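Chapter review: from sequence to fold.
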Amino acid sequence: MSVPIYQLLVLPPGGTGRDRVLEDITDLISERLISLSIQDEAGQESDSLSLVLDDRDQQLPIPRDGTILIPRLGYRGQSLVEMGRFLVAEKSIRGPRRQLSISCTSATDEDGDAPGERLLLKDARSQSWHRTTLGEIVDTIAERHGLTAVADPDLAGQVIEHVDQTDESDQAFLTRLADLYGAVIKPADGRLTLMIRGAAQIGPVVHLSASDLTSWSARFQDRPRYSRVRVHYSNRIAGGEGFTTVHSPEQGFAEFVLPELFPTLADAEAAGRAKLRSLNTSQLRVTLKGPGHPHLAAEGTVRLSGVHRLIDGEPLSIRSVRHQLGSSGYTTSIECGSRAEDTGAEEGVEGAT
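The token string follows.
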């Protein structure tokens, strides 16, 4: 049987990333670790790390604000997998057994040579973007924050005639654009990732068989289907409002009307395609649990075999992963669902009213 092991590195606060030295505290806490939990979320949700340590002799040092923890998980005889960098956010003690709990958030930071989302969240800015693409905007903002842009090619090619960023942080601005195009944006681990919502595409596909799982469940719920979405926009040429209708190849279903008025035809078309895709995506929710698998991560894809004919072979988009290490061993729990369906939507009629 494989023996799970871990390593915990600490980057103390102060100075710059280059003059701070990583410290390995694995031996210090090896006899004290009660539990280590890592929650990995898709999209804008922040990842987190939780530690519970035995402090019965009251000798454990309390980590200072600004401390970064870097956990690595795996099995004896194999290379350990770094699970991210986490900034200490809260410390607490409780009894009667004297336990120290440490809660951390994703340390996308300027504190430790691991740039990321905290930078994007901080400063509001104003900027006009004209005759560009969604990919060029992501590239520019990623470079601004020292990140590597990773964008879905179809999303990256979306033409944006004009959009204003007014007193918005880059995070809020990108989130607004991502919502418009049915996408998610996530800055983490040195990357700024833009991807279609529900269309996992980060990392290799992980294949799991029934023997790899200790439990599983699946829920099915079909949404009402729509053949088309009508969207209104400001028609500056003709004056007044115009509309465009985005069609699905499957006809004979209802029309959905978006209540918003969009500034341009391009914005309206993008919103219509995103809404049609969302409306026609089946609600398949799969929960998996098994022995620890450090390579499973949110926004990845998993395929099952030997589980059930209704879900075997289906590319499942990983929404969240929880890695749990404690006295009972190392386990991984996964929440996933069906990838976003390609509606094959096409631009329909348009006209001024």
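Two observations follow directly from the output. The first helix runs from residue 26 to 29. Helices lie at 26-29, 117-122, 134-144, 153-156, 170-180, 265-279.
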